[in-house]
Amino acid sequence: MSAEDPKPVLVSACLMGRHCRYDGRTNTDNPLLARLEAEGLQAVPFCPEEEGGLDTPRPPAWIETEGAEAVLEGRARVLTDAGADVTEAFVRGAQLALARCRELGIRKAYLKERSPSCGCLQTHVGSTAVAGPGVTAALLRRAGIETEGAEGRST
Ligand code: SF4
Known about the structure:
Elements: E1 7-12, H1 30-38, E2 41-46, H2 48-51, E3 61-63, H3 68-72, E4 78-80, H4 87-104, E5 108-112, E6 122-125, E7 128-131, H5 135-142, E8 146-150
Parallel strand pairs: 1-2, 1-5, 5-8
Antiparallel strand pairs: 3-4, 6-7
Helix pairs in contact: 4-5
The protein binds iron/sulfur cluster.
Iron/sulfur cluster is lined by residues 12-14, 20-21, 47-49, 112, 115, 117-118.
């Protein structure tokens, strides 16, 4: 990468228009994408849940009440609404997101708020939004990568 190359940042793929949400929809965030372009940043799309091996569409899932840090430490699980344990896929997706950041020298990630993977300030426990990060946001932060939440628009 030369000094003139745009600096890469990780972006939740659904914020960039990919239909990778659990329900097959997207959360395209055009204002965010315009801001990144204006700042000379290269948006690198990444969906931790798909990369972790889950299909789209897939059942909604949430973190047990102990939170994402506990998931990373093996003290809590991520469960679908039917009670299936998808913890391994969520943790694998987070690890692959970190690997992509390290491979490309990425220091900041823009992630979809309230997702059990990508949420930065809030995530879902059951059907309720609660304070705390999702699994990928938590792992990236542990590694010193800055995270910023974004909303997008569900379409
Ligand atoms: S919020 Fe994250 S895990 Fe969920 S669809 Fe978007 S990129 Fe994938």
